[in-house]
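Now for a sample.
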Amino acid sequence: MHAWPASEVPALPGKGRDLRIHDTATGGPVTLDPGPVARIYVCGITPYDATHIGHAATYNAFDLVQRVWLDTKRQVHYVQNVTDVDDPLLERAARDDVDWVALAEQETALFREDMTALRMLPPRHYIGAVEAIPGIVPLVERLRDSGAAYELEGDVYFSVEADPHFGGVSHLDAAAMRLLSAERGGDPDRAGKKNPLDPMLWMAAREGEPNWDGGSLGRGRPGWHIECVAIALEHLGMGFDVQGGGSDLVFPHHEMGASHAQALTGEFPMAKAYVHAGMVALDGEKMSKSRGNLVFVSALRRDGVDPAAIRLALLAHHYRADWEWTDQVLRDAVARLERWRAAVSRPDGPSAETLVEEIRAALANDLDAPAALAAVDRWAALQEERGGTDEGAPGVVSRAVDALMGVAL
């Protein structure tokens, strides 16, 4: 599966700072010091309705991670999946009486268009669940053959007790895990499971549903968590730098994925930092497909909203914060974009050397995009009030905002 084209990242003078970021697993900040190549895996969409502002906020956060690393003169090995076969996709296709493959392709194409418009840097590897099945099957067989998984009426389940570190990502108690499992695709009440929390690795073929050859597992399709594990292990290996996604993935998805990988390899941890973006609300409720309260990036673009303004609206909120999308949020972003573009359109201005370092410091400090925006606002206000004599300053500001925050002025 192909990703989307990369926008050019301008080179800046000097060198950026190492990223200090909040790690869900430890509950506090960690300073990441990758080698020459930083490794990041971000969980992708299930393509039955893309791309809403909640999606965009999540991918914006991890785009900033990439940009901070690139500014330190590292390469970035970024991997993202597409869950292009799963119950929600099949249910939507059945509801609308459309082919599920066509629906997945259509929504994935729209996601690519939105990511391109928003200048999100693409992954090096963009892998669909379906194309990953040949690599998933042997992992499930290994887990089963080692005793870390078991069969139940043709399905294969992972035993959470096989990983001594299980629970180390979310730190939730069993009751909370059980509730979230039921809400987020698990089946804790199924009879015959060794532990109610055990997640499915391989679902035996169901009548009328797509299925694939699973070798000794029989025909079926993979569970949700093992999909990401197979892709991450193949392309990044264990101990990669950041596992990313929305905060709704902490449990069960990232907890279970970590345990799958750790049971398979005997190594710990799967990722050096588990980083999670907050949820975006609309009209007082979390923006979600099940509620239908979605604001789509493509709809905003069709209405003539500049993608740079959408990006500024996202950047105005700290990535870990839960926040609400409103018309005022967008109006503020449009106004900011106009001020900034006016400021950099002049032939000279106040010195920008300090500003670049302020942006770098803000983003290296747990991706504090609002502080970075405030720094640019101050420079733009000085430009408007009294201008300056530095002929190169507007160009430096324009390149810094593009390179570090993905906003084209």
In short: Residues 20-286 form a domain with the Rossmann fold fold (CATH 3.40.50.620).
